[in-house]
Write a structure and sequence with these properties.
Layout lengths: L1 H18 L2 E4 L9 E4 L3 E4 L6 E6 L6 E7 L4 E7 L3 E5 L6 E8 L4 E8 L1
Antiparallel strand pairs: 1-2, 3-4, 4-7, 5-6, 5-8, 8-9
């Protein structure tokens, strides 16, 4: 029973985080003040996806780390984004909800996508 409740709370938190229109990043230790990152930093399409997930960045000046997690927090995919448009083959992934996280040295952006 406790495990089910823990799973439900985790899923609700992950879903709420992925649905938030903005993410607040606090002081990172380099003297930066808190900054607000807009939801439009990158797009994913199609969503839901069956075979291929396309990721489009608005701008980048460096390689970015790309990670995809399932709703239980298990990392399913890890790679680097080196161009403004990239694709991931998701055809062999299980159907469900995934979180796509893009990170540089100071900022993390996360969005949700559904694999059909």
């Amino acid at each position: 029973m406790k495990l089910k409740l823990l799973f439900l709370l985790f899923f609700m938190a992950a879903y709420s985080f992925a649905q938030a229109p903005t993410t607040l990043i606090s002081n990172i230790g380099s003297g930066l003040s808190a900054m607000e990152i807009q939801d439009n930093e990158f797009t994913i399409a199609p969503n839901p996806a069956k075979n291929k997930l396309n990721i489009k960045l608005l701008s980048t000046s460096e390689d970015l780390k790309l990670e995809v997690f399932d709703v239980l927090g298990k990392r399913i995919y890890k790679g680097l984004i080196t161009k403004l448009e990239s694709s991931i083959d998701v055809s062999n992934w299980k159907s469900g909800v995934y979180l796509v996280r893009i990170t540089d040295d100071t900022v993390t952006h996360t969005k949700r996508f559904i694999k059909q």
